[in-house]
Amino acid sequence: MTTTGPFLLLALAASIGLIVLLSGRFKLHPFLAIVLSTFAFGLAAMGIGAAAGSDEPYVADLGGTIAEGFGSILAGIGLVIIFGTIIGKVLERTGAAVTLADAVLRVVGKRHPAIAMSLMGWVVSIPVFCDSGYVVLSPLQRSIARKTGRNPVVLGTALATGLYASHTFVPPTPGPIAAAGNVGIGADGLVWVILFGIPVSLVATIAGLAWALRRTPNLESALPQAQQTFEEYKAQFERIPGLGRALAPIVVPILLMAAGSVASFPSGDGTLVGGALGDVIADLGTPVNALLIGVLLALALLPARRDAEVLTKWVGEGLSDAAIILVITGAGGAFGAVIKATPIADYIKSLIGDGSSVAGPVALLVLFGLAALLKTAQGSSTAALIITSTLAQPLLPALGLDVTMGNIPVGQVLAVMAIGAGAMVVSHVNDSYFWVVTQFSGMSVSTAYRAHTAATLVQGVTAIAFVLVLGVALL
Fold it and tell me: How many Cβ atoms are within 10 Å of 466's Cβ, its own excluded?
């Protein structure tokens, strides 16, 4: 493995470069670019394994692995994307998005829409997966872009980075909870992960917002350019829904997902809300169920005397928008599945050894690097959090991360923070979130690399710098 590991990483880097080249330089549709690059990487991995004399092929069934990866990612997020796009289309067509944009900008002012999107993203993603949060909030992002004249790439990047920050650091999002458990933090200690995760995630959010404001204003979006002023656009609606009704399709699913996360929060030997009530709350809080309720609330916005053909057309437009996102997201899932079928993760884990050569703050940097390698290689922040924390747990004493301050497991908590920072670096073509952000913001692949991917790099590096400062002070 130590001999083939570097070659696998090189093949992975080449396949990622091929995606960017095919979609950016040669204008091939991202779906085909990802699929072709996935096959190329799979064949390269099989060749590397065969040349090294591996007993079993690194990717035993390339076609089957690609099909399984394509289907499994859509099983997890496919209906979320479909329901989210239908909600967005109804909000747009009924004028509800106009109501929401007016309300947000009354609070923050027209000069600070990116700050509003960033903070909304940070709050929403504490209980909600960032993919789902972006789908739910994207109609609001588009409407605010129209009203303020701001570049959708700026607002999209601000929203994406706000969601991403709390997603990787603050329970009850599943990744940080799993990482905390893996390093030995019990249910009673999760409050410290939350208390440390909030400031670390806010630092990462500010870093992402700064990148969006300074580095993305000149990047282009493929979203249709407004041909009329916001007031002219607003005047085309006969009757715009009130704020409460306009908020319901977005806020109710978010509250349901939040309630489901809180109800499932570990407490003692069970969860915070147990029994039948806990099961019902958790079930309603699954993203698919919560967003289906959001769809029903969105349909309630339609005028009583509506043309059935118009309703069918609006839903059809939402499905059409979702189709492109679905196939690209599925292709990204296939790419990730092929990567996971190879022993890249095992090679990356072997790089740390027994951890005895590093300790204290330096160990935090090592955990960050390991999580960053895993995240960049296989695409999932949650997987990077889980794998790295599992590996780190038996090494904590050797790494000098078993330090406590009173009843605060500070060493373990900082280990989770360092791993979370690494799990942000970087979101690119093998990450489903990359494609959700790209497609809902109208970014090309090359634009998304300059905006979203670069921003996640800045966020991760800034977060680990802050964690290292905490490590120097507390370890």
Answer: 17
Which three-class secondary structure string do you get for 86-103? HHHHHHHHHCHHHHHHHH
Q: Output the CA angle 359-208-345, nearest 5 degrees.
A: 45
φ/ψ of 444, rounded to 5, equals -75, 170
Spatial CA neighbour of 188 closest among 389, 413, 399? 413
Residue 267: phi and psi, rounded to 5, are: -150, 115
| Residue 448, H or E segment | helix 445-448
- Number of Cβ within 10 Å of residue 351's Cβ equals 12
Cβ–Cβ < 8 Å for 363, 412 = no
Give the residue ranges of DSSP H helices in 95-189. 96-108, 113-124, 130-148, 152-169, 174-182
pLDDT band of residue 175 (cuts 50, 70, 90) is confident
**Angle, CA of 335, 158 and 243, to the nearest 5°:** 110
The string of pLDDT tens digits covering residues 69-118 is: 899 878 877 888 788 778 877 877 787 877 776 776 777 766 788 998 89
Q: Does the pLDDT value for residue 14 go beyond 70?
A: yes
Q: For residue 250, what are its two tokens? A: 């977005």
Q: State how far the Cα of 78 lies from the Cα of 325, in Å rounded to an integer.
A: 9
CB count in 10 Å sphere of residue 242: 11
